[in-house]
Design goal:
Layout: H1 3-22, H2 25-36, H3 39-49
Amino acid sequence: MNKTQRLLLSLGILLIDLVVFFLPLTALFLIYILMYNPPWFREFLNNLNGST
């Protein structure tokens, strides 16, 4: 394995590590709610408001 392959493998491992441990799951969840406006979320908000 030459130096270039080792460097690329190291960068790949680093990128995978960054994605796995620093993925903003809350932000992705909020984007999903804003984009698709699921019925279960509207029901949740209505229940918080006290209206049925």
